Every structure is written in structure tokens, then in C-alpha cells.
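Running co-folding for coenzyme A.
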Amino acid sequence: MEPKGYFIHESSVADEGCSIGEGTNIWHFCHVMAGARIGKDCTIGQNVMIATDVILGDRVKVQNNVSIYTGVTLEDEVFLGPSCVFTNVLHPRSAVNRKGQYTRTNVGKGATIGANATVVCGHDIGKFAFIGAGAVVTKKVPDYALVMGNPAIQKGWVSEFGHTLAFDWNGFAICPESDQEYKLENNQVTRIK
Ligand SMILES: CC(C)(COP(=O)(O)OP(=O)(O)OC[C@H]1O[C@@H](n2cnc3c(N)ncnc32)[C@H](O)[C@@H]1OP(=O)(O)O)[C@@H](O)C(=O)NCCC(=O)NCCS
């Protein structure tokens, strides 16, 4: 741990003007650009780029080979699987300068993005949503939704522990690992206990 309270491997670069929270570990060959803000107790794997003005909450985990582009915000406890892909321009053209016209994408608290998934910009991902490996997200993803495939289709709901929720006729479900209870109403899931 460095005196600053976080660790950054010597092969990585943190530009002046970024901020990195206490207890965060940044591993090999990463680049944190000026204006990026990383919260506390995050883990940033190998070969990760965090662009200008990107915000990461606390306890975020980023696996290897992820670029987090300007316009992306990750709330607390988001998990990014290896080589998942963000975008920030919907109709990019090399000859047309769209700097400063980035489309924003917010990833809600506790959400997981599976390995090699792609998030087309402008489609927010709800809290505790789960994006399957290799999915291509082209629509807003509701809280606690499980989506997969290309284009990503909702296949069910998941608990905060990542288990599929089997709702009964009255719209109640219990997470098999945590015993947390959930209610499905009007196509929205909330944790009730
Ligand atoms: C989405 C996921 C959570 C589903 O897991 P699961 O509930 O155990 O699902 P199952 O393996 O029982 O598969 C159920 C069905 O979904 C399909 N499926 C599973 N994962 C899929 C995916 N990522 N994309 C498309 N289809 C998928 C299966 O083929 C199966 O289809 P079938 O019913 O026609 O046979 C899991 O497959 C996944 O993608 N996890 C992310 C892993 C990851 O990226 N980890 C990163 C850290 S290393």
C-alpha cells in the first residue's frame, strides 16, 4: 500500500488530476486518465483504461482488458467481467469529430456485466441487473433483470446474490443463498426483506 492509501502497480499510469480512493488496487498496465474518479476498495485488473471524467463508486471490480470510456458511470459494487466493452458514440465516423458529444451510460449499484458483453451506449443498466457473457445490450435493462444474447433479451430476474428468482403466483420469491425476499409487481422487482 502506498502512503496515499491505495496501490497502483509500477507498470500503470495515473494521470495528474484523477482521484483514487483508499484501499483500491490497480494492477498491471492500466491507465487512469485526468478527471477520472475511482472510489474506495475497488479492484482494477490488468490492462484497464479508465477515461476522463469516468466515475466508479466504491467496491467496484473490473476484470482484465476493459476500457471504460467517458460518459460511463459505475455505481457501488458493480462487477465488470473480462473484456466487456463499453461504447460512447452511437454512430461513429472517423472523419466526423464527435468529441464532447458522448452518450452516457449508467450502470446501477451491484450490477454484473459478463465476460465479453457489449453495452451499446445510452442504455442504462439497473441495479443488481445481470448481463450474461457475450450479450449485446441495446435497450435499458431494469433493476434485477437477467439478460443474455445478441441482442440481449430478458430471460428472468436475479437476486442481489446473482441467483435466478422463481416468483410464485403472488409475486414473491426467496433467494436460495441469502434468504432475501423479493416482490415482482408491475414488471418491477424490489427487495422486501
Ligand atoms: C447468464 C448466466 C448467469 C446464466 O447462467 P445459468 O442461470 O446457470 O444458466 P444455464 O447455464 O442453466 O443456461 C440456461 C440457458 O441459457 C443459455 N445461456 C446461458 N448463458 C448464456 C449466455 N451468456 N448467452 C446466451 N445464452 C446463455 C444456455 O445455453 C441455456 O439455454 P437452453 O435452456 O436453451 O439450454 C451465465 O451463463 C453467464 O453468462 N454468466 C456470466 C459469466 C461471466 O461472464 N463471468 C465473468 C467473471 S469470470
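Result summary
Residues 32 and 158 are 32 Å apart (CA to CA).
The mean pLDDT is 97.
Job closed.
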